[in-house]
Design goal:
With about 130 residues, the protein is of the alpha+beta class. The protein has five helices and five strands.
Length: about 130
């Protein structure tokens, strides 16, 4: 099964198109390697997904035939994310450092990139 189809079927993304774009943008890794949307997944693979500047890790148990209900997701994969609450709180503190005056409008493209790269810059400093 394709990785974008798998992520859609286990409800990690709202649509297969969004899952495909996440793969193309490097937000999906299998066994610590960036993958294309057409990459085949097998049980025992570890999938990492970057959502909201946080990497989530999942282990595949089984492959569903089609999209499953939220209650059944645990039968097909389990989340093994080791992000601690402290790390998530530190990300929130970093994002609060970016101050925008009220009424200034949407962030510019440059400001959005800076916000997205906060996590990346933190990893380089460690």
């Amino acid at each position: 099964m394709r990785v974008d189809q798998y992520l859609y079927n286990v409800r990690q993304f709202k649509s297969r198109n969004i899952a495909s774009h996440a793969c193309k943008n490097g937000h999906v890794q299998i066994n610590d390697k960036n993958v294309k949307p057409s990459r085949e997944v097998v049980p025992t693979d570890l999938i990492k997904i970057r959502k909201n500047q946080i990497w989530k890790t999942f282990e595949i148990f089984n492959l569903p035939k089609n999209r499953i209900s939220a209650k059944l997701v645990a039968l097909y994969c389990i989340e093994k994310t080791d992000n601690s609450i402290i790390e998530i709180e530190s990300l929130r503190k970093l994002s609060s450092n970016i101050f925008r005056e009220q009424g200034r409008g949407r962030p510019t493209k440059k400001e959005r990139r800076e916000i997205d790269n906060i996590r990346f810059d933190k990893d380089l400093n460690d």
